[in-house]
Amino acid sequence: MPQINPNITNFSELSFIFRFLPIFLIAYYVLPSRLRPFVLFVGSLAFYAFGDPKSMGIFAVAVIVNLIFSYRCQAHSKPALIFIIAADVILLLSFKFLSGYGKISGLPLGISFFTFKMVSYQADLYKGKIKKCPGIFAVAAYFSMFPQLMSGPIMRYCDFEKNKVLSGTEDRFLVFKDRIHLHLDKIEEGLVFFTLGFAMKALLADYLAAMWNDIGTIGYESISTPLAWAGVVCYSLNLYFDFWGYSLMAAGIGVMLGFPFIKNFDHPYASKTVGEFYRRWHMTLGSWFRDYVYFPMGGSRESKSNTIRNLFVVWALTGLWHGVTLNFIVWAGALLVMIVMEKFVWSSNEKLLAVIGRINVLIIIPITWVIFALPVKEDLYNYMGRLFPVNGAGIAVNPGDFAKLLSTYWGFLLAGLMLLFPGIYSNIVKRRKDWPMRVMMLILFWVCVTIVSTKAGNPFMYVNF
Questions:
Q1: What is the greatest pairwise CA distance in the chain?
Q2: Any alpha helices (H) in 75-175, and if so which ranges?
Q3: Cα angle: 327, vertex 329, 331; to 5 degrees
Q4: Do you find a cis peptide bond into 153, omega within 30 degrees of 0?
Q5: Phi and psi of 427, rounded to 5°?
Q6: How confident is the model at residue 171 (pLDDT cuts 50, 70, 90)?
Q7: Phi-psi region of 279 (alpha: psi -120 to 50; beta: other; left: phi over 0)
Q8: Are 382 and 220 spatial neighbours (Cβ–Cβ below 8 Å)?
Q9: Which of helix, strand or coil describes residue 183?
Q10: Which of 209, 231, 258, 260 is the Cys-Cys partner for 163 at CB 3.0 to 4.6 Å?
């Protein structure tokens, strides 16, 4: 067995895969079913303590306060709802601003995602979407469940309560042998998605991240225009497969525990417009803003000006959610402009929308990811100068840089581009229970383990948000 890194809070680290996860699964399934909410909560607290022990107090207070106010929200108290949502949002934004302006180093682990869960839970309680007030440990486990703690997906409580394994109702009347078989089936099913995400992280995203770092090492003011465009493709694929890989691993662990599979990506680069792209990218975040911000404000049901106002609020909050630095505001603003233009200008001509929409998805959105990636305005200015050479700004200091880096990383770029085609992933998932595919998944898993064991850990990118 290769040497295991002690960092258990990174799903692609061997310490998580071979220590934390199997120990937790054994406790989860061997102990009596009535204890599973408690086991999930305690396991999640242990995961949090390993990842960010200094922020445990903040996390614990947020959970306790939300539990207390949940009873008033269940009783349809609007003042209680307004207070607790305001408190949750202020908590999140305070740390975002403190971190963004360098007052603190980093955010408390998972604060963005457990805050969004808390807000949606309180709102759904108030609206009566949650019919029965759950037990304390069930709610605490929902807020803190470790598979989704760091970077989502943002599960709603209605999906959390679909877990029959958690309550024991699924296997209550089964004999021991059948119960074991049922639980092993869920673990195997979850391992397929976990392995696919593991491969995206270890075999694609980490190597594309190395290429992006090499571009930064050369210097954005020095790279050639061809390499600048290759960097756009590189970073776009890096972000995509890093975050999609994490989402698949998190969803796979959820399936192992008996939760429904939570889809967070649906082949966004196959989209025809920017609006469609962001309905397919980080789907649980997009649907959260839609259901708890956009629709309550009126959505698209009112006048054009009100619709634009509602879109502005959603995208302003989306930008602030990612960070308070100028690059995130510019990034969100650019997307807002494209979506408004698609919705109210280009939509009048279907052929025009089809052409511009595809250009936006395949060219403009990847360029916006560079804005997303570079918080220092001088870096962004230099990079854009290389992308669009004006008055000699794109002249390469090192004209051989493109060929040199592509000779190392072309295979990863090609593999990433091929996986943008939906049929490849869909075919793997469709055939995941066939024996040849099971063997391939087993081999793929151990290939990833071998590769991860030979290099230093590379955290998932969205942990920063």
A1: 77
A2: 78-100, 111-127, 136-144, 146-149, 157-160, 164-167
A3: 65
A4: yes
A5: -70, -40
A6: low
A7: alpha
A8: yes
A9: helix
A10: 258
Positive/negative CA dihedral, 12, 186, 154, 274: positive
Name which of 79, 161, 95, 149 is nearest 117 in CA terms: 149
Q: pTM, whole model, 2 decimals? A: 0.92
Tell me the three state secondary structure of residue 24: helix
Which of these, 130, 136, 140, lies nearest to 161 by C-alpha position? 130
Task: Give first-to-last CA distance, the chain, whole Å.
Answer: 33
At residue 420, the 3 state secondary structure works out as coil
- What is the residue whose two structure tokens read 């759950």? 134
Q: Give the list of residues 6+ apart from residue 450 with CB closer than 8 angstroms, or none.
A: 2
Calculate Rg over the CA atoms of the chain: 23
* Encoded tokens for 425: 């992933």
Query: Distance (Å, rounded) from C-alpha 272 to C-alpha 439?
Result: 36
- Rounded Cα distance between 50 and 24, Å, is 14
To 5 degrees, how large is the angle CA 208–CA 214–CA 215? 95
- 214: which 2 tokens? 């090499």
Q: What would the pLDDT profile of 233-264 be if each residue is shown by its tens digit?
A: 999 999 999 999 999 999 999 999 999 999 99
390-437 pLDDT, tens digit per residue, is 765 445 567 788 888 999 999 999 999 999 999 999 999 999 889 999
Nearest to 215 by CA among 383, 422, 388, 418: 383
**What are the residue boundaries of the structural domains of the chain, listed by start?**
14-173, 185-464
Q: 215: which 2 tokens?
A: 């571009």
| Contact yes or no for 70/121 (Cβ under 8 A) | yes
